[in-house]
């Protein structure tokens, strides 16, 4: 199948709808019928503001989070429409890909 890999980048302390933004994105992708998504917690990183974000032993609030998913064109369009409706401002990378499951005929 042809589609896109979407990767979103945020911090653990960003919230939307009462949830951490990464968790909200996972739940929203699932409710839209996206086949799967993964949330990855990183050790450190920096964004457009050049500020270093990192996980600390006692405080994970600033921990960088990456949310990755493979989507069809239709799922991609629906997810971006939802992000516009919710007025979510988040950095992303959108890459054309081929995806599927091994063993399928």
Task: Describe this protein's structure.
This protein is of the alpha+beta class. The protein has a single domain (2-47, 61-98), classed as 2-Layer Sandwich (Alpha-Beta Plaits), CATH 3.30.70. It contains two helices and eight strands, in the order E-E-E-H-E-E-E-E-H-E. Strand 5 (44-46) and strand 6 form a beta hairpin. The model has no long low-confidence stretch (mean pLDDT 85). This is PII-like signaling protein. Belongs to the UPF0166 family.
End-to-end distance? 12 Å
CATH class term: Alpha Beta
Biggest pleated-sheet summary: 4 strands, antiparallel
Helix-strand category: alpha+beta
Family: Belongs to the UPF0166 family.
Protein name: PII-like signaling protein
Pfam families: DUF190
InterPro entries: N-reg_PII-like_a/b, N-reg_PII/ATP_PRibTrfase_C, UPF0166
Strand and helix layout:
Elements: E1 2-11, E2 15-16, E3 19-20, H1 21-31, E4 37-41, E5 44-46, E6 52-54, E7 64-71, H2 73-85, E8 91-98
Antiparallel strand pairs: 1-7, 1-8, 2-3, 4-7, 5-6
Family: Belongs to the UPF0166 family.
Pfam families: DUF190
InterPro entries: N-reg_PII-like_a/b, N-reg_PII/ATP_PRibTrfase_C, UPF0166
Structure, briefly:
This protein has helices at 21-31, 73-85, and strands at 2-11, 15-16, 19-20, 37-41, 44-46, 52-54, 64-71, 91-98.
């Amino acid at each position: 199948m042809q589609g896109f890999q979407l990767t979103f980048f945020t911090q653990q302390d960003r919230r939307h709808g009462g949830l951490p933004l990464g968790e909200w994105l996972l739940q929203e992708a699932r409710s839209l019928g996206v086949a799967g998504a993964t949330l990855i917690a990183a050790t450190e990183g920096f964004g457009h503001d050049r500020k270093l974000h990192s996980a600390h032993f006692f405080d994970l609030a600033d921990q960088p989070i990456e949310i990755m998913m493979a989507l069809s064109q239709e799922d991609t369009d629906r997810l971006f429409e939802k992000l516009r409706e919710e007025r979510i401002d988040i950095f992303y990378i959108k890459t054309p890909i081929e995806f599927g499951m091994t063993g399928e005929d």
